[in-house]
């Protein structure tokens, strides 16, 4: 029977799901027909007080940022996380146990910090021998809930994240730096530039792609509007994700530049490959996809706390610019149009940060952790058998004497 790997994600934004999907794809590419996998939205099992927040996550990010930021910073401390767990764990044990009981596996891979905190305890309570790996899905400034020593192994995207894990008492030998998980065929799909541009009937102008994550969050609409009405010598590709309202509003706009508006799409690699500049919120998955596509990045928005470090990472490495107002986005595009060398430098910096094999590296670490766990269980079983055999041999004379 093939070993079973369960990948746990949560629908708080699209990044956790995308990471799990990328790792699953990499496992099957790297180890064909060797594993059975399952993607599980573990938050479906969560108590109502957790689901109430996760289901309204886009609302918090879009309309209640101050409150979201206060909540993030108030809980972003190891001792405070432990204090919260002392309160919440007794209320959620049955829900977490149900994740394990309903989704048996030989290895669990967590792509959401809630599972890094809760599932190791469930495995202990249920005496389940499977190891659990947690994949940190924030480049630099992730919540400390990601960094728990209770998991069997921690996979982080950057050296900065590794240092944060060590500061939060994760043993260095339990940490691997593998990059942000991106679909392993992303780079190859980006190469279809001419084919995609022809299919979209794009002209020769500079192509600017605007995106706001899978849920079309943040200042996507107003940023796209400013660019569409700028009159710059550009053409726009605007991806609205699941945000149907933004899509419909932009479709009614009378733009001054050529513009194509999309909803949720499955051809992001091709669209990035056909583009020259990416304008996006500071989601880690989209940023790392842009690195692979070699796109200069303009960041127009960031979720408070968790994405602040992503902005610093892009700007510090010269791969893009932070433009938090729509008019500053237009100004930055104009600057790059007028200074092609600066645009080329940003493009080269973006390419240097690319890690197209990140998901494959994560798959290799996962398989190594699983194999070591199986060997340890086999060794423990052999030792137990040998101990039982020695006890039987040593007891035989005593039993014989007693019977005589």
Structure report:
The chain has helices at residues 15-30, 48-55, 57-63, 65-75, 78-102, 113-125, 159-167, 186-190, 193-199, 220-228, 244-251, 268-273, 284-293, 308-316, 326-338, 340-352, 358-403, and strands spanning 4-9, 36-41, 107-110, 132-135, 153-156, 175-177, 206-211, 234-239, 259-262, 277-281, 297-301, 320-322. Helix content is 53%, strand content 14%. It has a 6-stranded parallel sheet with strand order 2-1-3-4-5-6, sandwiched between helices. A 6-stranded parallel sheet has the order 9-8-7-10-11-12, sandwiched between helices. It is globular, with a radius of gyration of 25 Å. It has 17 helices and 12 strands.
Summarize the entry for a quick read:
The chain has 404 residues and is α/β, with parallel strands linked by helices. It has two domains: 4-181, Rossmann fold (3-Layer(aba) Sandwich), CATH 3.40.50; 186-352, Rossmann fold. It has 17 helices and twelve strands.
